Structure formats: C-alpha cells, structure tokens
From TrEMBL:
Residues 159-229 form a coiled coil. This is Exocyst complex component. The lineage of its organism: Eukaryota, Metazoa, Chordata, Craniata, Vertebrata. Residues 66-75 have a biased composition (Basic and acidic residues). GO terms for cellular component: exocyst; plasma membrane.
C-alpha cells in the first residue's frame, strides 16, 4: 500500500488544490460535503498528492495560520481513522515526532543556536517559557501571554523562535500524515458508503420531521390554548387576589348600610371608622374606594342627623309618658313605705319569713283595725288593683334610654358633645316648664293632682337616671337648678289650687299624695323640706274644711235629735250606748228595763264625732315627720276650734231657734252637762293616741268645758226668756173688770192655767242641776210678780173697786200658794215667796186705800 501511494505533496502543491465546498443547506449534522467526496474518489486512481491548505497569518497575531493549519490537518487525519477528531495537541500526541532529515533545518538551528548564544540566557529562557505557555494554554487565555511578548523589546527574536517552532511542528505533521495516508483513504471510502445511508437517514429524518410538524400542529394549537388558559388563569388569580382585598371593603360598606337602615347608628359609626382606617387604605387606588372616601363625611352627617332625630323622638316619648313613669315610681315608694311600716310594727321573728301576700294582708288588717276613718279617707293610690305577686317594674325599666346613650356617644366621637349637651338641656328645660304648668281644673279631683305629680316625678326620675348613667350630660348643678324651679312652681300651684278644696277627704288625700310625692323624690336625693313646710300650711286649711264638714255633721245631729232621754229596752242596747259614751250611773244600772238615759241621742253622737274629728286630724299628721308633741299640739288646737267655734255655734243656733221649746232647752242643758263631764275622757283619748301626757309643758288644754258651760248658760238664759214669754202670753189673757162690785169665788182662769203650766214645766226640771231649776223658778216668779204689778199700776187703770181688788188679791194668793208648794226643790224657807212680797204689799196698800176712801 505504501508503494502504490505517491509521496505526500508538499505545502506548495497542496496550497493550489481546491477545498471542498461546504455541505448543502438542510443536510444533517453528520453529512459531508458532496464535492469533497467526489473529488477524493476521482483523484484516488492517479494517487495525486493530498492538497494542503495554505497557511494564512492574521497580521499582528503570530502563529494564527499555523494553528489553523494544524487544526485542519488534525481534522482530516482524525476523520480518516475514526470519523471524528478532537482539535488541539491530542492528535499530535498520538504519534511521537521523528527527527527531521533536512540539513537546512539543522543549519538553521545552528545559526539560531549561534544567535541564541549571543542572546542573554535570561531572554532565551523567557521566550522558551512563553512558547511553552502558548502551547499549553487554552486559546481563550493566550491574551496575557502575548501581551508579555509585546511588552518587551525583543519580539522580533521571539517571532523567529516562533517560526522555528512552527516549522518543527510542520515537519512532524507531514511525517504523521504520510504514515497515516492509506488509513485516511480507507476512511474516505467508508465515508462515501456512509453517505448513502446518511441520505436515507436524512430522508427518514425529513419525513419524520414533516410528520412531526404535521402532528405538532394540534399540539401547537393546544399549546396556544394552554397559553391562553394560563394567561386567563393568571388573570383570574390576580382578579381573585384583588377581589380578596376589595370584598371586605364592600362587605363592610354593605354592613354599614344595613346598620343605618336598621337604625343601629352607634354600630354603624364604629363600622364606618373601621372601614375608613383599616380597609379603605388597602385599596385606596380604586375608583369606588375614592367614592366611598368622599361619602364618609356625608355618612357621618347622616348618622348624626338620624341619631338626633331618634333623640327628638325619645324626648317626645318621655314627655308623653312622664306620668306613667312617675306613677310607677310613686307606687314603688308606696310599697316601700308600707313594708317599712310593717317591719317597724312587726319585729322579725326568727321562726321564718312572711310571704309578700301575707305582709300585704297584715298591712290591710292593720289599716282596718286601727283607723276609724271612713273608706274614702284610708288611702290615695289604688295599688290594690295590681297583682300582689307581681313585682312593679322599675321606673327605669319603662324607658329605653339607648337613644340618649347612642346619640351622646355618636356626638362625642364626632367631636360635638358640647352641642349635644346644650341641646338636651335646653329641650328638657322646655319640657320642665310644660310639666310644671298645672291644669286649670286640677283642684276638682284627686286625679288632677295625681297626674300633675306623676309628670313631675317622671321628669326627675328620668333626669336622675341620666345623671347617674352618663358622664357629664347633666350635672348636679343643672339638676338642682331644675329642682329649685320645680319646687317653687309646684308649691305656688298647690297653694293656689288647694285653697279651692272644700272637701276634707280631698284635702287629706292631697296631703297623702304630697307626702308620697315628697318621699318618692327624696328617695332620689332631692331636698323636700319646703314641701313638708307647705303641708303645715295645708294643715290649717284642712282644719278649716274639717270644721266646715263637722259643722254640717253637728247640725244634722242636732236637727234630727228628739231632745228626749234615750229609752233602753235591753242590756245589749244599754252596753252599746255605754260603749259609745263614757257614762256611769249606779242607780240607773240598778233600775230594771225598760229605763232611760238622762241625755238624748245627740250626746253619744256628738261625742263620737268629736273623736272622729280627732282621728281625722291625726290622720293628717301622719308621715309629716312631726314629733309627738307637735302632733298633740296640732290635734288639741284643732279640737279646741271644733269645740269653741263649730260645736258652740251649732248649739247656740239650736238654742236661739224660735221654735225651740222649754223641754228641748232643758234637754240641751242636761246634754251639755254630760258632754262637759266627758271632756276629761277626750283628754285621755288624745293622750293615748299621741303618747303625750297632759302634764307635759306646752301641752294645750281642751276648752270643751268652757264651751259646754257657755252653751248651758245660753240655754238657761233662753229658758228664762221662754218662761217669761209664756208668762206674758198668759197675762195677755187677763181681763180684769176694775169696776166690778163683787169678786169671784176663785182665782182668774188665766192665772190658774199659768200656774198649771209652771207646775208642769218645773216638773221637767227635775234632771236639771238644782241651781238651774231654782234660778228658773225664781226668775219666773219674779217676772210674774212684776207683770201683775204692772197690770195694777198701768195708766189705763184710773179707778178700781174693792171687788176688783179682791179678785186681784185672789190671784196673788194663788201665786203665793204656788210659791209655798215648792215647785222646785232646794229653796230654803220662804225664799221663793219673797218673789211676790212686793206684789202683796202693793195689793194690801191698795185695799187699805180703797177702804179709807
């Protein structure tokens, strides 16, 4: 094979051979250029020299042409053996270099050696180091090495050394190529065979590529759709993230609207603040959020206006329902007072507790057993209509104060608390003036007063609750100012309207209502001393109305009395009367039934009515926080007015009546005598109910004794007057014939009738005190004597006969006989006859004169 192969062409010959063209476009990565293979096959029979590419050197970069050439040679040699080759010194290391036979190179080496000897050893060593570094260093890192050559001044010598090194390597390459040429040719032959397979493979790859492209269209479409889906997914994800931020804002805004729609203004304000400071800053770049931010001041103003509207509704509501609030508060005060009274009267028993119903029942029993007043005077508030087992709700439970609290907090949060406080106080002052204005007909019924007091109590209960449940909305100074105004107006209204009350029951109920009104407000901390002072003024008016009422009662009793002793037919009636009036008479008790009391029916009736009056006065003094001495003094003064003015006037009117008879007058004297004796029992009665002894200093004494004495004296005087009038009536019937010649056989008829009348009248005087009967008898006899003397001495009697004088003397003797008969016991001797002594002397003198004439 070496013989057939021609020698390896020289560099100059190879430089003229054409290079194979590049592979056509679209050929596979392993395909060789077609002309290259064809050229090699055509040149194979003649065995021409293998062409060699000319070496080109880039100016300024030494060794570049050699490197390119060595790379090409290594590629061709490697391809011929293995079909692939690695560039670089790896191919060179495959074959060891052989010594060059050329003498020219030896002479050149000698010349270079001679020249190297002339160079310094240091420069030669440096150049050698650079060459070794160029051979061993990667092309990318050769820059610094070349720079070190040009930094020196002997780069010319280095170039010569470099050229020598290149020629040395070229010779080695030529040897290697000549040694491996046949293998190269074989490799080319194999490559030509591979070309057909490569073409088939190319066609297969082309078909596969075409099929792949056709099949990949759907994949590309799916990929585009996937891309769009991924884009949509990414957009949706971004949208969800944004909505996650925006939805809480929208939900809070919707919640705010719902709260405002349901009038939950305070939570709406809190929601608005949370929305403004927490949620909106996170999404402030959205337009709808900017709209919300712009609407926030409007929403605040809307909440403010709506809350103020709720406050106005609240103020209007409590103005309308103040009476109900006050009524409830006063009922609670009444119940508490009843319980306090029961607890004070009934000490706690360790054995157990009473139920509320038992307590109320015992309270009712106490009222019925201890109070003698009629049912209409027993109370004020009709709380018995309420279920006893049901608790009365608190006054605060009847009112929903949440509008005030909400509005106050809203205005506080909005910085307008002072405006709210001023508005609230101004409106409540206006309502206070309306509440304190009493109706014109308030004095007509108790309900008018009750409604008036309920409204006032309701007003101040609300204000007291506001004072203790809010901080600064109202203060104590404001409440005190309102209370002072209310107190002055209330007292003035009560003074005016109570003066129109003429019914003592209404005045008593009014007093109880005022006490309950005062106790209720005192329980809320309001001073009520002025109300109790005013009650003392009303007490005087109450006494006046009682006196007027009892005046009518006494008149009815006196008018309906029969002025005759009370007949008693059995023991039961007797004990009943003795129980009503303190009367004890051992002789009367011993008498069998039927029997009579010396007094008439008006005595026990008047006595009981005096006690009722005392009870009525005591009833007024209850719950006035007065001492026992003050209560005793008030009762005694009122009772004295009843005795000295009311009862005395009634008795005087009865005594002075024209149609009253001597029997009635006598009975009045007897009755007043017994009433006078009962005054000490009235003293004891007052002492028992007030627990103040009569011996106590400043204790007022009852003037009943004086009253009854005066009435009795008036009756006595009236008896005297009536007797005289009766005597005068009989004397008017006297018809003396002063010219009669003969006297009659007996006394004159009128005088006999007169004496008979006097006897029967004085017989009734047996139950009168002795002095009264004696005085009446003496007065009658004196008046009769005087009247007879006037008949005899009157101017019309110018002359009389002895017969007429004798008849007159018979009448005088009849009078003397009456005096001697003792019509009234108790006269000593002839005391009663002395009443006619002057008449006797006048008669005797007249008879003597007539006889002498």
């Amino acid at each position: 094979m070496s013989e057939a192969s021609p020698p390896f062409p020289s560099r100059s010959t190879a430089s003229h051979l054409p290079l194979p063209p590049a592979a056509p476009p679209g050929a596979g990565p392993g395909a060789l250029p077609a002309p290259l293979g064809a050229g090699l096959l055509a040149a194979a029979p003649q065995a021409p020299a293998l062409p060699r590419a000319p070496r080109t050197t880039t100016p300024g970069v030494p060794g570049q042409g050699r490197a390119e050439r060595s790379g090409e040679d290594r590629q061709v040699g490697g391809s011929a053996r293995h079909g692939s080759a690695r560039p670089g010194r790896a191919g060179l290391a495959a074959c060891p270099p052989e010594p060059s036979p050329c003498s020219s190179s030896s002479s050149s080496s000698m010349e270079r050696g001679k020249m190297a000897e002339l160079e310094s050893l240091e420069t030669a060593a440096e150049h050698e180091r650079i060459l070794r570094e160029i051979e061993s260093t990667d092309t990318a890192c050769i820059g610094p090495t070349l720079r070190s050559v040009y930094d020196g001044e002997e780069h010319g010598r280095f170039m010569e050394k470099l050229e020598a090194r290149i020629r040395n390597h070229d010779r080695e390459i030529e040897k290697m190529c000549n040694f491996h040429y046949q293998g190269f040719v074989d490799s080319i032959t194999e490559l030509l065979k591979v070309r057909g397979e490569a073409q088939k493979l190319k066609n297969q790859v082309t078909d596969t590529n075409r099929k792949l492209q056709n099949e990949g269209k759907e994949l590309i479409i799916a990929m585009e759709e996937l891309k769009q889906c991924r884009l949509q997914q990414r957009n949706i994800s971004a949208t969800v993230d944004k909505l996650t931020l925006c939805l809480p804002v929208l939900e809070m805004y919707s919640k705010l609207r719902e709260q405002m729609k349901s009038k939950r203004h305070y939570p709406a304000l809190k929601t608005l603040e949370h929305l403004e400071h927490t949620y909106l800053p996170q999404v402030s770049h959205y337009r709808f959020c900017k709209i919300m931010v712009d609407n926030i001041p409007k929403l605040r103003e809307e909440i403010k206006e709506v809350s103020m509207s709720d406050l106005k509704d609240f103020l209007e509501s409590i103005r309308k329902h103040s009476d109900k609030i006050g009524e409830t508060a006063m009922k609670q005060a009444q119940q508490q007072r009843n319980l306090d009274n029961i607890v004070s009267q009934h000490p706690r028993i360790s054995g157990g507790k009473k139920s509320k119903k038992e307590v109320c029942a015992s309270s009712d029993l106490e009222v019925k057993t201890t109070s003698p007043m009629s049912e209409q005077d027993s109370g004020i508030l009709d709380v018995e209509d309420e279920d006893e087992d049901e608790e009365v709700p608190g006054a605060q439970d009847l009112v929903d104060f949440s509008p005030v609290y909400r509005c106050l907090h809203i205005y506080s949060v909005l910085g307008a608390r002072e405006t709210f406080e001023n508005y609230y106080r101004k409106q409540r002052r206006k309502q206070a003036r309306l509440v304190l204005q009493p109706p014109s007909n308030m004095h007509e019924t108790l309900d008018g007063y009750r409604k008036y007091f309920n409204q006032i109590v309701g007003f101040f209960v609300v204000e007291d609750h506001i004072l203790h449940t809010t901080q600064g909305l109202v203060n104590r100074a404001y409440i005190d100012e309102l209370w002072e105004m209310a107190l002055s107006k209330t007292i003035a209204a009560l003074r005016t309207h109570s003066s129109y009350c003429s019914d003592p029951s209404l005045v008593l109920d009014l007093k109880n209502l005022i006490v309950l009104f005062a106790d209720t407000l005192q329980g809320y901390g309001f001073p009520v001393n002025q109300l109790f002072d005013m009650l003392l003024e009303i007490q005087d008016q109450y006494s006046e109305t009682l006196l007027k009422k009892w005046s009518g009662v006494f008149r009815n009793i006196l008018d309906s009395d029969n002025y005759s002793p009370i007949p008693v037919t059995n023991e039961e009636i007797y004990k009943k009367i003795v129980g009503q009036f303190p009367f004890q008479d051992a002789e009367l008790e011993k008498q069998p039934f039927p029997k009579k009391f010396p007094f008439s029916e008006f005595v026990p009736k008047v006595y009981n009515q005096i006690k009722e009056f005392i009870y009525a006065c005591l009833k007024f003094s209850e719950d006035l926080h007065l001492s026992s001495t003050e209560v005793d003094d008030m009762i005694r003064k009122s009772t004295n007015l009843l005795l000295t003015r009311t009862l005395s006037n009634c008795l005087q009117n009865v005594i002075k009546r024209k149609n009253v008879g001597l029997t009635e007058l006598v009975q009045i004297i007897i009755n007043t005598t017994h009433l006078e004796k009962s005054c000490k029992f009235l003293e004891e009665f007052i002492t028992n109910i007030t627990n103040v002894l009569p011996e106590t200093v400043h204790t007022t004494k009852l003037y009943g004794t004086t009253t009854f004495k005066d009435a009795r004296h008036a009756a006595e005087e009236e008896i005297y007057t009536n007797l005289n009038q009766k005597i005068d009536q009989f004397l008017q019937l006297a018809d003396y014939d002063w010219m009669a010649m003969e006297p009659g056989s007996k006394a004159s008829d009128y005088l006999v009738d007169l004496i008979g009348f006097l006897r029967s009248t004085f017989a009734v005087f047996t139950h009168l005190p002795g002095k009264v009967a004696q005085t009446a008898c003496m007065s009658a006899c004196k008046h009769l004597s005087t009247s007879l003397m006037q008949l005899l001495l009157e101017a019309e009697v110018r002359q009389l006969t002895l017969g007429a004088l004798q008849q007159f003397n018979l009448d005088v003797e009849e009078c003397e006989q009456f005096a001697r008969s003792g019509p009234v016991p108790g006269f000593q001797g002839d005391t009663l006859q002395l009443a006619f002594i002057d008449l006797r002397q006048l008669t005797m003198t007249s008879a003597v004169c007539l006889r002498s004439s």
